[in-house]
Amino acid sequence: MRVQRRLFILDNQPVYAQGLKQALQEYNSYDSIRSFSDSDELIKHLKTNRISALILGWNLPETTNSIRLLKFLVQKLNISVLVNSANEDIYTAMRAYNAGALGFITKSSNGMELSEALRTVINHERYLPCCLEEKLKSFLRFGEQDLMGVLTPQEQIILQKICNDCPSSKIADELNISLHTVNNHRKNILRKTSCKSVVSLVKYGLLRGYDNNS
């Protein structure tokens, strides 16, 4: 018996989502493609419908809520997700992968690229555009080091919280330490990783999976 191929799209730009559906129908034959602009409505339908994959639109800027939704879809509902992002940098791609996405593609991609990305994700394999693969290789060749051997266990916990947008005051409360101690740890983490700013530290941590809450 042939398995039906169903796709869902979540994007808060209905006109773009409609164009996406047309592009997919041109390059592939799917039994159904349905788009949503509201995540609650999407989740309600996912609980009663089996789908081959979900195209999850990330518009600028992607937020902590975007990450939480992606993790919920992957970890709780076991959905194969292809993130379709307006942001074309490698850090956004790694943030998506670390949260559980199987594939990442940019909104400037053509229908053929999107079709290839979907086929890969439906086969439960990872997909990253060639242009971003090269950027990832270049980044990893430059100054990569083993953070597990550099940072203390508590510094690793604090780095993870920083990468999850957790402010210092909340880190202090959760770890039951003073704000002064947290700030000292932050300075030490910056020094040990040779990062010049918190922004570069977050990017550094994201590429190594430090936004993973599990």
Give an overview in words.
- By secondary structure, the chain is α/β, with parallel strands linked by helices.
- It has two domains: 6-139, Rossmann fold (3-Layer(aba) Sandwich), CATH 3.40.50.2300; 147-206, Arc Repressor Mutant, subunit A.
- Helix content is 53%, strand content 12%.
- It has eleven helices and five strands; from the N terminus they run βαβαβαβαβααααααα.
- It has a five-stranded parallel β-sheet with strand order 2-1-3-4-5, sandwiched between helices.
- β1, α1 and β2 form a beta-alpha-beta unit.
- α8 (153-163) crosses α10.
- The longest helix is centred in the C-terminal third of the chain and has 15 residues, at 179-193.
- The protein is elongated and about 60 Å long.
- The model is unreliable at 141-145 (pLDDT under 50).
Task: Give a short overview.
This protein has 11 helices and 5 strands, in the order E-H-E-H-E-H-E-H-E-H-H-H-H-H-H-H. The protein has 214 residues and is of the alpha/beta class.
List keywords for this structure.
214 residues, alpha/beta, Rossmann fold, Arc Repressor Mutant, subunit A, 2 domains, 5-stranded parallel sheet, 12% strand, elongated
Which fold name fills CATH's third level, the topology of the largest domain? Rossmann fold
For the largest beta-sheet, the strand count, sense and barrel status come to: 5 strands, parallel
**Could you say what the CATH architecture of the largest domain is?**
3-Layer(aba) Sandwich
The residue fraction in helices comes out at 40-55%
Determine the CATH superfamily of the largest domain: Response regulator
Q: How many strands in all?
A: 5
Strand line-up of the largest beta sheet: 2-1-3-4-5
| Average pLDDT figure | 84
Low-confidence regions: 141-145
Q: Which CATH class of the largest domain applies here? A: Alpha Beta
Number of domains: 2
Q: Strand fraction band? A: 5-15%
Specify the structural class: alpha/beta
| Rg calculated over all Cα atoms | 19 Å
- What's the end-to-end separation, in Å? 37 Å
What is the element string, with H for helices and E for strands?
A: EHEHEHEHEHHHHHHH
Tally of helical runs: 11
Apparent shape? elongated
